[in-house]
Amino acid sequence: MHRVRGVVARSKGAPVSVETILVPDPGPGEALVRVQACGVCHTDLHYREGGIGEEFPYLLGHEAAGIVEAVGPDVSDVAVGDFVILNWRAVCGHCRSCRRGRPWYCFSTFNATQKMTLEDGTPLSPALGIGAFAEKTLVAAGQCTKIDPKAPPTAAGLLGCGVMAGIGAAINTAEVGRGDTVAVFGCGGVGDAAIAGARLAGAKTIIAVDLDERKLDWARSFGATHTVNARNADPVQVIKEITDGNGVDVAIDAVGVPETYRQAFEARDLAGTVVLVGVPRPDMEITLPFIEVFGRGGALKSSWYGDCLPSRDFPMLIELYLQGRLDLDRFVSETIKLDDVEAAFHKMEKGDVLRSVVVL
Ligand SMILES: NC(=O)c1ccc[n+]([C@@H]2O[C@H](COP(=O)([O-])OP(=O)(O)OC[C@H]3O[C@@H](n4cnc5c(N)ncnc54)[C@H](O)[C@@H]3O)[C@@H](O)[C@H]2O)c1
Ligand SMILES: [Zn+2]
Ligand SMILES: [Zn+2]
User: Fold this and answer.
1) pLDDT in the model for residue 64
2) What is the pLDDT of residue 140?
3) Could you tell me if 323 and 3 are in contact, meaning their C-beta atoms sit under 8 angstroms apart?
């Protein structure tokens, strides 16, 4: 049993607090990871707001890299000392999707079996089955993806959630190809990663949409060729103007509200693809003109974790990073301590940061 500090959301909407938590030694199929860096993702804030579930208290943090400190008796695919990125979709290998050769959709992903707890024994719900705003965390061994230790933890950890989700939304879900036109709604960590992904994939036009000028400046630095401030202009109209009246081949909603989804739907060219990677709140509903859903053809897709396969995509993207072809460091606006997560949420809400990364 390990007594460590972790960031806990005790109840809906309440500020998070740093608490002493108890982390069991790894049992069968589990790994104990000493967390080195963990990014603050909007999904952590969704958890704190009660937008994901009501299983408080939550141990937040899920965008992390660290060193494997111990493994359960039967674990052979990761070893003590490995430098790993934690993933929140450990592939099972035998569900109906895995059996059909589509493990990135695995319908039976899994987490550690044992519970981490508060000091009084109250079980914690780890965010996305990870809980990495903590000095140590217990995960399923399959949640650990080994990568090249030459990459710094601050950059590597980002691939554990938001950056992978964004890049994957572009390259895996949308299958952006050379010469495509792409629009990205919402230029936070996820949206900018979608922009970086679209650039890697060879898109010729990448239009960034946000409500905040600073976000649009950053979006340009990741590869946006055009920007639209949706406070001052109708993004659908501007996107059509930029694309000779046609709309884009791929429209990615990295906000996840009905307004941006509708804009993505309308800003798309015939036979184009809409990808939803932002996470809607449970109470939200959308209305779309049904005849247009048919008439415009193409595809309306959602992207879980960028449809990534961690064992395939994490090492590949780290390789691109080490070659200087994918700038992960640019996502890191600031490095902070565990005690600063609540303040980081406020900075995120105000749009002051792309990613605050807790360094341990
Ligand atoms: N699908 C996945 O697997 C996955 C993984 C990680 C995060 N997410 C989700 O992706 C979303 C974005 O996460 P993030 O960390 O980048 O958040 P963020 O808060 O850093 O970024 C959101 C951006 O959207 C902009 N925005 C808000 N309303 C807008 C509007 N109406 N029009 C245009 N822009 C608008 C904001 O100004 C901000 O720049 C969240 O919903 C998060 O939960 C999904
Ligand atoms: Zn499976
Ligand atoms: Zn996340």
Assistant:
1) 98
2) 98
3) no
Ligand 3 centroid to residue 246 C-alpha, Å? 33
Are 110 and 93 in contact, with CB atoms under 8 Å apart? no
Q: Which ligand is nearest to the CA of 100?
A: 2
Considering only CA atoms, which residue is closest to atom 15 of ligand 1?
A: 42
Hey, what domains does the chain have and what are their CATH numbers? 2-160+327-359 (3.90.180.10), 166-304 (3.40.50.720)
Q: Whose CA is nearest to atom 22 of ligand 1?
A: 188
pTM to 2 decimals? 0.96
* Regions of the chain where pLDDT drops below 50: none
pLDDT, one tens digit per residue, over 16-33 is: 999 999 999 999 999 999
How do residues 211-246 score in pLDDT, each as one tens digit?
A: 999 999 999 999 999 999 999 999 999 999 999 999
